[in-house]
Amino acid sequence: MSLRTSLFAFASASLLALATPILAHDGHDHGQHDDHASQNSGEVTVGDLTISGPFTRATLPNAPVGGGFLTITNGGSTDDRLVSAQSAIGKDTQIHEMAMEGDVMKMRQLAGGIVIPAGETITLKPGGMHLMFMGLHAPIVEGDTVPVTLSFEQAGDVTLDLVAAGSAADAPAHDHGSMGH
């Protein structure tokens, strides 16, 4: 890995780590979002998968990266895999994981995607697995929506909107019941 790539990865991980709250939530209702017609009450179904709670965080001006978060439940009897994600908000959209290795937070791309085991739920959340918007074309502003297309091995493609919550949000602005998990 080149020094430039290492520095970019470190800067990206640092930005996400600094933005990750320590049980913080401002308690305000940031409003409902206007999703695609198939997204009733914040849920989207594609194949055997149900996707809920899609959100992103507002970014600072000139921030090079942003994150995308959501929950995927596989109600089927076979595993599926989130293979890739695409969004026009940046130059590239990747699937990432942040994990502690000793006392160092490290971030890495999950090039093979994420397995969604049959009958289980996977949560992409701040400080864990997440979508990474690389090379943002503009800041993500609280209240905006970021369209993202997810590609699954079995279920196929689905496009949904990630609502931009505040920069310290740990769950969708409209989903106060799932705070603090």
TrEMBL record:
Instruction: Cite the entry's keywords alphabetically.
Output: Signal
Q: Write the signal peptide boundaries.
A: 1-24
| SUPFAM superfamilies in the record | DR1885-like metal-binding protein
> Does the keyword Signal feature in the UniProt annotation?
yes
List the Pfam families hit by this protein, alphabetically. PCuAC
Task: Give the protein name, as stated in the record.
Answer: Copper(I)-binding protein
Q: Which organism is it from?
A: Devosia crocina
